Amino acid sequence: MAGEEESDKKKGFKVLGILDVQNTPCAREALLHGSGGSLAAGLLHFLATSRVKRSFDVGFAGFMLTTLGSWFYCRITNAQLRMQQRLIQDGIKNKVMYEGTSLDTVSKPKEQEPCPSCP
What we know:
A two-stranded antiparallel sheet has the order 1-2. A hairpin with a 3-residue loop joins strand 1 and strand 2. Helix 2 packs antiparallel against helix 3. It starts with a helix and ends in a 21-residue tail after the last helix. The longest helix has about 45 residues, at about 50-100. It is mainly alpha-helical. It contains 3 helices and 2 strands; from the N terminus they run αββαα.
């Protein structure tokens, strides 16, 4: 029984049998934005022109453009975030490794200034 429950949880929801929405980053948000964009574009075009077929075409184009735009924006933002996290992790690792050594850039020992009255 426990094995069946785990396999059900890991399956997720697939769109067209290829895109696993639950496990793919940004997929859910992109599809939701796309459906909203298609509804808005198709409805506004229908209200403006009263042409059903053309409004469907505009709605479909709105879905594709909004979905792809949202997908690429989210993926680029996630990639930038991962790069920043990697830089911070490397910096923390270097800080821990070099702390207290002569290579430590933060807490270098101060050089003593020559005393003017000393010979």
